[in-house]
Design brief:
By secondary structure, the chain is α+β, with helices and mostly antiparallel strands. About 25% of the residues lie in helices and about 20% in strands. The protein is built from six helices and 15 strands. The protein has a three-stranded antiparallel sheet, with no helix packed on it. The protein starts with a helix and ends in a 22-residue tail after the last helix. Keywords: Chitin-binding, Disulfide bond, Glycoprotein, Repeat, Signal.
Length: about 290
């Protein structure tokens, strides 16, 4: 019996020593890990874990922009965050957390979050959605409207230039497209005038086209404008009038419109008066 008890005691001592040794070994391993440089994979995992902690919802519900990428945003529902991307070419409009809206980039400030997703180009469309200038930089007034990577070609009205900054047609001096300024487009230079005349934005005829004329903004920057069909610019009055009343332009539309068509433009039939239905006025007559 004593032998058995002694044996059990010895086994207990050995077990206790073994547990102490295991604890010491674990402490030693932890200390070694703390001083051992982490692998790149371990560091990236830590960064991902940190990002998970950072990417929290600012509010329990709403739509919030990414801090670096203009077409990325986050959908928060009851504190649960979901990362989303706008369609290629559009950016997230962060005007209100209550609205989930992707828009064309014109008019949206992406200066603090300039990154964008990788483009998905197609013929004439650098991105799937948007307004884009013609590939030929010398083509100033043609641009493409792209939807789902399919394009429509659009031409600006005469005298205007496509602006890549605003996505619309604009005056050459405002569009500021390289190679498409007033000097490059128009064979016309505003005459030198004094300040009082310049302040009136003087007008001058287009010597090659009776229907058009130039407005010199502040007496310096020419903008080409035009009269409506059948009319021409009268240099004497500085206004548009019927071409047949202006001696130097009386035959301008001869090869375009017949005399009958010009007569119809100059003397349009009176608009028919609207036919009156039942009167909605309240009657002042007493009811019987």
């Amino acid at each position: 019996m004593k032998t058995v008890v002694l044996l059990l005691i010895c086994l207990g001592v050995v077990t206790a020593l073994t547990r102490k040794q295991e604890a010491a070994e674990q402490s030693r391993r932890k200390a070694a890990l703390a001083t051992t440089p982490k692998t790149k994979q371990e560091q990236e995992q830590e960064y991902e874990d940190d990002d998970d902690l950072v990417d929290q919802c600012p509010e329990p519900n709403g739509y919030f922009p990414d801090a670096e990428q203009c077409d990325k945003y986050y959908d928060c529902q009851d504190g649960k965050i979901t990362e989303k991307l706008c369609p290629d070419g559009l950016v997230f409009n962060d005007f209100s957390p209550q609205h989930e809206k992707c828009d064309l980039p014109f008019g949206i400030d992406c200066s603090k979050r300039p990154k964008r997703q990788k483009p998905q180009p197609s013929p004439h469309c650098p991105r799937m959605h948007g307004y884009f200038a013609h590939e030929d930089p010398r083509n100033c007034n043609t641009f493409y409207y792209c939807v789902e990577g399919k394009f429509n070609m659009i031409t600006c009205p005469d005298g205007l230039v496509f602006s890549e900054k605003t996505g619309i047609c604009n005056w050459p001096d405002e569009a500021q497209k390289k190679g498409c300024g007033s000097r490059e487009l128009f064979n016309f230079t505003c005459p030198k005038v004094d300040e009082s005349v310049a302040a009136t934005h003087p007008r001058y005829p287009d010597t090659e086209d009776c229907q058009y004329f130039y407005v010199c903004v502040n007496g310096e920057v020419p903008r080409r404008s035009g009269c409506k069909l059948g009319q021409a610019f009268d240099e004497r009055s500085g206004k548009c009038d019927w071409a047949r009343k202006i001696p130097e332009c009386k035959d301008w539309y001869k090869d375009q419109l017949t005399d009958e068509e010009l007569d119809a433009l100059e003397n349009p039939p009176p608009k028919p008066k609207p036919t009156g239905g039942p009167s909605r006025r309240k009657s002042n007559r007493p009811t019987v």
